[in-house]
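I hope you will forgive my troubling you with a question about protein structure. The matter concerns a single protein, recorded as an amino acid sequence and a row of backbone structure tokens. Please examine both parts with care and let me know of anything in them that strikes you as inconsistent. Here, with my thanks, is the record as I have it:
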Amino acid sequence: MDFRIVRHHARRLALPLIAATALSLSGCGYNDFQRLDEQTRSAWSEVLNQYQRRADLIPNLVETVKGEAAFEQETLSRVIEARARATAIQVSPGMLDDPQAMERFQQAQGQLGGALSRLLAVAENYPDLKANQGFQDLRVQLEGTENRVTVARNRYIEAVQQYNVLARSFPSNLTAMIFGYPLKPGFTVADEAAISTPPKVDFGGQGGR
């Protein structure tokens, strides 16, 4: 038997099989899963970047506020504690596929945002603090960061929605099962409602929170 002839025929048979497999993967959404999965992870990275930026601004804010001797210590303590809880959560790539871990992370970040809003609202009652240029600079940076957090979260929500629609639709849902593409957790309904509201640049008007 001439093995060269056998190998030649094997290659000729393999090429159509490879081509058919590639076409079937493309047609059933495999390539779309690859693209949307990467898009979702990229959007999530930007959310984390903005949350980290906010956390990094807080120590300087706390030190500045401490200079106001009569400032409400309970309000300041809540910010410090909320930041500690938020930054203590271990963020890993697997969080995107873990609804419970995502929920804990959201809650911690939401509590920190609420504590910051309260602190900045209370600061309106302290003329010396309002006149402090360092405090005002930090306030502007925080307000800008909150807006960027909102934009980043919106992009993440949109990316997750596109991915999950693909994962639920036929026949791409079969591809999701075969290749292990589970549904991704988004933000909670309450979070999404808050995100859909245009961000307020002035935290001073949120004193009721």
In short: Residues 32-206 form one domain. Residues 99 and 185 are 5 Å apart (CA to CA).
